[in-house]
Amino acid sequence: MGLAPAAHGGNRTGRMFTGDSSGDWLAKVLYDFGFANKSTSISSNDGLILNNAYITAALRCVPPENKPTKDELTNCSDYLKIELEILRNAKVIICLGKIAYDCCCKLIGIKGIKFSHAKSFYFKRFVIICSYHPSRQNTQTGRLKWDQWSKVFYKAKKILDEIK
């Protein structure tokens, strides 16, 4: 779960995390851990197939300056709630960034657990894993390095393998 479709990525291509640098990071790590059939995501008809994965976001449209208002988050929360009901077999939620994490917490009732990168915990039927968002702001400044990013998805893969 991310923040929103990026203005020059998902908003342009019609698929979340597609056609921008965040999507490049996500597609590669999903492929590396067997959650996708290819390591790139450039358009909605590029042949990318997810395996035991689903990509969504807290918002359905790009917020100005990537700073959503409380009203925007509230308005879009019904979509997330419906998606979660449809995905009744989902076991792991990876929250990409604090805003996505906060939305997840509100949606499923998590209280008192602070966001920090690579933190994971069980809540109800889910394992929640927190990660910094793979935005250019985080990846180009070194706040999020590839090995830190990979460990989040390694953890998700390990949990899913143990459940099987």
Descriptive overview:
- The protein is mainly alpha-helical.
- It has a single domain, classed as Uracil-DNA glycosylase-like domain (Uracil-DNA Glycosylase, subunit E).
- Helix content is 40%, strand content 9%.
- The chain contains 6 helices and 3 strands, in the order H-H-H-E-H-E-E-H-H.
- Strand 2 and strand 3 form a beta hairpin.
- It is globular.
CATH superfamily membership? Uracil-DNA glycosylase-like domain
The tally of strands reads 3
Mean pLDDT comes to 89
Low-pLDDT ranges: none
| Beta content | 5-15%
Number of domain modules: 1
Helix/strand layout:
Layout: H1 10-13, H2 21-32, H3 70-86, E1 92-96, H4 98-108, E2 120-123, E3 126-131, H5 136-139, H6 146-163
Parallel strand pairs: 1-3
Antiparallel strand pairs: 2-3
What's this, in brief?
The protein is mainly alpha-helical.
List key phrases describing it.
164 residues; mainly alpha; Uracil-DNA Glycosylase, subunit E; 40% helix; globular
